[in-house]
């Protein structure tokens, strides 16, 4: 996953610490990934990020399970100062990992899924997709970033 965005510009002088999980693409992996992220953030002094990171990791990992048939997925979490960057990779080049088209309120109320990437878009400081393998993609990663840095107000 070396070709994922790893530059976290605000705190580029601080060392980056990477943590990786390679796991089976099964329903339980979302829970394992969310608990891993929560433990990592608590152990490294980032409790303010725990709940949002848990939610977003769950959504991104669940997307792999719901929309691919790959046997494994990879999660990488990078901490640099107050910033967390998480990417989840699968080796399925198909599918479009971006929020779905808007639906009518009636259809939205009855939908059982389709909100995961909308949550990522709404809650992350930044997020995106990286395709792997060049012209003939061999897979993709969905990533997001969060920060618990104080917001500087300009007057």
Salient structural properties:
single chain; 155 residues; alpha+beta; 5-stranded antiparallel beta sheet; 4 helices; 5 strands; disordered N terminus
Outline the fold blueprint.
Layout: E1 17-24, H1 28-43, H2 50-67, E2 72-80, E3 83-90, H3 105-110, H4 116-123, E4 126-132, E5 139-147
Antiparallel strand pairs: 1-2, 2-3, 3-5, 4-5
Helix pairs in contact: 1-2, 2-4
Q: What gap, in angstroms, lies between the N and C termini?
A: 40 Å
Structural class: alpha+beta
Biggest pleated sheet: 5 strands, antiparallel
Give Rg in angstroms. Answer: 16 Å
Overall shape = globular
**Tally of DSSP helical segments:** 4
Task: Average the pLDDT over all residues and give the rounded result.
Answer: 84
Strand content: 25-35%
With strands numbered from the N-terminus, the spatial order across the biggest sheet is 1-2-3-5-4
How many β-strand runs?
5
- Sequence stretches where pLDDT stays below 50 over 5 or more residues: 1-9
What share of residues is helical?
25-40%
Helices and strands, in N-to-C order?
Answer: EHHEEHHEE
